[in-house]
Amino acid sequence: MKLSNDVRETVQRRAQGACEYCRLPQEASILPHQVDHIIGRQHRGSDDVANLCLCCIHCNLKKGPNIASIDPETGILVALYHPRCHSWREHFTVAIEGTIQGLTAEGRATVQLLDMNGEDRVRLRALLLRRSRHP
Length: 135
Ligand SMILES: [Zn+2]
Known about the structure:
NA-targeting_endonuclease; nuclease; endonuclease activity; binds zinc ion; about 30% helix; alpha+beta; 5 helices; two-stranded antiparallel ribbon; single chain; HNH
């Protein structure tokens, strides 16, 4: 079932136009941000706004239907960062050079799975940080 325009607008407004994983602002992306099912439909995740988040194309393509990954530091399987249940600042931090570091097992696993520190993504993030346009 397709999400309604009302639901999409609610998700975009709540996220203030930024990807809820890597925080890329919509205006800094050529491609439109998408509405992501945090728990995918394959896993019986619902279309309720409590299971939706705004997601840039880069994060969405890497996340796919995944809901868990391996923490690169401990090798343990953990659930991914959940934008509705977790606080971004408790799980991630942005370095001045533009990399995002995971502060927790969930944060580290999510950074790695979503390839948040891909070369082009870090370069753009550093530029936005210098211009104070990265939330
Ligand atoms: Zn993103």
